[in-house]
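Input (structure):
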């Protein structure tokens, strides 16, 4: 039903993409045909605007809203202004990943980020999820524990944040991060259970699934990476041991809500908050193979070029080997524009592209990519301000579509 679309006057996206073939994996015959079609038909055949079947979800295009922390969930409770924000970015058959959402009262490290461990939080997510569903969107909740990337002021009773280690984040701003407390081995199942309950809560709130935040130097990454994890128990040391915590969370969630509702985000090559690894290729490959055993729906990997927050660097690394190893849907993210998104899809490098800053500033990004329209510029000064409108829901749509 197109009547609920934010673009009532636009030709139906579904009708347009129906005429196109899905791009094939690299090496398959149709690949050059797809390329030719794109050249001949112009924007109509943009690979980003072709459908993709992800488990039981029929995505109508491949432009995914990346998880974006916006710090407008006052007191860790999602707010009504998020209904409009997510609705603006929802399309029929489009995948949206919600901002990082805390799994417990020890999971937080930033002001006004949402949670999903209390009844009030779950109830507050419901109208936001309903809003996305009313537009036909598919909505996953990114569940999160910051670990040591926190400060005692965010922690219950002002206690130290927990981590895989007791080494603090090495920051020039010494006051920013409180030295963490290393989790005892027998406490780890309790944290895994927090993720399990958060996933259950996400489904109760109406989300279509969850994305485990295993990226960017937060708690799971603090276990995965050998430059942080200095444990001597079964959760530290070997690659297998360092991946155990992440995979036990995956297992718990697969058991709780089903593999067809579980995705995970990883950034093996990144080094945020000191979470670097001496062999990121091996880490990525180990996780890809292990995730296959659980049959998880998707793996969402941050590009090696994103070694620093927001930056784009030349790198000899590629996610190609992860692509070849992982059997589910592969989402990639990190400084993609329209052209290299299209290239990544048509070459079979990835199934879906997650867009962060461009989607933040262009609520109708799939539509703009469809017709190759110009893009609004993002304003990083307003990414994290608490204002419920400015820099949040006030980025303009294409004037012809309003
Ligand atoms: C304002 C902002 C908030 C972000 N919040 C999250 C987050 O909550 N979870 C996450 O995994 N990544 C987060 N990221 C990273 C983005 O999801 C994305 O990977 C990154 O911006 C690179 O993609 P881009 O070049 O398309 O923006 C954030 C990025 C920005 C700019």
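Output (sequence):
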């Amino acid at each position: 039903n197109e009547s609920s679309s934010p673009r009532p006057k636009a030709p139906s996206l579904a009708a347009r993409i129906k005429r196109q073939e899905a791009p094939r994996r690299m090496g398959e015959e149709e690949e050059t045909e797809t390329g030719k079609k794109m050249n001949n038909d112009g924007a109509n055949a943009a690979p980003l605007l072709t459908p993709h079947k992800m488990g039981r979800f029929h995505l109508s295009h491949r432009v995914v809203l990346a998880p974006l922390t916006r710090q407008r969930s006052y007191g860790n409770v999602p707010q009504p202004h998020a209904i409009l924000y997510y609705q603006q970015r929802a399309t029929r058959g489009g995948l949206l990943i919600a901002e990082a959402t805390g799994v417990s009262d020890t999971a937080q490290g930033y002001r006004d980020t949402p949670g999903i461990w209390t009844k009030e939080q779950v109830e507050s997510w419901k109208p936001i999820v309903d809003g996305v569903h009313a537009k036909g969107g598919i909505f996953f909740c990114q569940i999160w524990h910051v670990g040591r990337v926190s400060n005692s002021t965010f922690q219950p009773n002002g206690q130290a944040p927990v981590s895989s280690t007791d080494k603090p984040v090495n920051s020039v701003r010494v006051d920013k991060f409180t030295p963490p407390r290393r989790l005892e081995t027998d406490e780890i199942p309790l944290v895994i259970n927090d993720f399990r309950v958060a996933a259950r809560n996400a489904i109760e709130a109406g989300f279509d699934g969850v994305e485990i935040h295993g990226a960017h130097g937060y708690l799971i990454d603090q276990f995965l990476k050998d430059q942080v994890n200095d444990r001597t128990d079964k959760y530290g040391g070997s690659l297998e041991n360092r991946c155990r915590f992440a995979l036990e969370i995956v297992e718990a969630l697969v058991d709780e809500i089903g593999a067809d509702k579980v995705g995970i985000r990883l950034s093996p090559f990144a080094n945020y908050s000191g979470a670097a690894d001496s062999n990121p290729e091996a880490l990525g490959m180990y996780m890809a193979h292990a995730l296959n055993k659980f049959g998880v729906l998707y793996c969402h990997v941050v590009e090696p070029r994103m070694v620093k927050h927001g930056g784009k660097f030349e790198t000899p690394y590629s996610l190609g080997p992860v692509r070849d190893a992982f059997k589910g849907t592969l989402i990639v993210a990190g400084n993609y524009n329209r052209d290299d998104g299209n290239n990544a899809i048509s070459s079979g490098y990835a199934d879906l592209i997650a867009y962060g800053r461009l989607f933040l500033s262009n609520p109708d990004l799939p539509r703009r990519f469809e017709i190759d329209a110009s893009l609004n510029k993002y304003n990083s000064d307003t990414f994290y301000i608490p204002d419920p409108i400015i820099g949040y829901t006030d980025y303009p749509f294409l004037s012809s579509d309003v």
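Notes: Residues 1-43 have pLDDT under 50 and may be disordered. Residues 251 and 294 are 7 Å apart (CA to CA).
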